[in-house]
Amino acid sequence: MISHEETNRRQAIAAMTSAISGVLADDLPSVYLYGSAVLDDFRLGWSDIDILVLTQTPISLEQAQKLVTLRQTLLAAEPDDPYYRSFEGGMLPLSAFLSKAPDRVVYWGTSGQRITDTYSFDSFCLWELLHNGQLLHGPELRDQMTPPTYASLREDVKKHCDSIRRYGHTTGRSLYSFGWLLDIARGLYTLRTGAVISKTAAGQWALEQGLCPDPGALETALLVRRDPLSHRDDPGVLDYAASITPAVQRFADVLESELDALPPQLTEK
Description:
Blueprint: H1 4-23, E1 30-34, E2 49-55, H2 61-68, H3 70-77, E3 87-93, H4 94-99, E4 105-109, E5 112-116, H5 123-132, E6 134-137, H6 150-167, H7 179-193, H8 199-209, H9 215-226, H10 235-242, H11 245-260
Parallel strand pairs: 2-3
Antiparallel strand pairs: 1-2, 1-6, 3-4, 4-5
Helix pairs in contact: 6-7, 6-11, 7-8, 7-11, 8-9
């Protein structure tokens, strides 16, 4: 049975898809949903609703100006909807996406939105799009995309590891601090399998494999990830989040050791 929350989220996704495709109707847009929303891992209060919009022709400045504030427009019309602010992603011409050439791009992120000329789409996102993504509107375009290689996935795992070393060196009183542990777990899974799974599934896998030097910290991260809204104001959980820096860095040591081992190339599936 579909939960009330799932029904509301699907309605928000349908409304956003309709609004985007309406603005871009003359450009034959393809709207894709990928990430946690299709991996049964979306959690309100933590997760994003990841979308990718590809058009057959360039996006005009007038269209871009409507799209860049579309999240706020829909939220203003339905101020009690908790999902519109969760949408993130990029909207750009298919030709620019495939070639990585500059073009007009509308970007929605956690920190805001903007009109720009480039869009970064890493190998993790591409793997998820090709293997699990859902086409919500328009023609199917994924047959024109080149799947990521194991080498490109490994390179992006290394970038994640570098970010964890740089930005996860000091954790704060935020539920998102637990995310570093789940990111590491997913990186380890990808290195060992050449595939990408949800962060929750990766965290559970890492626990079962005994990979985390501080399993209690990873168990708490999974507990929080599964129901973030019930923990967001818990002072004990928030205090613990601020104290897990050593656990994060010890788990990052495991990831770095895997990277240094230079695992062999895996056959693409």
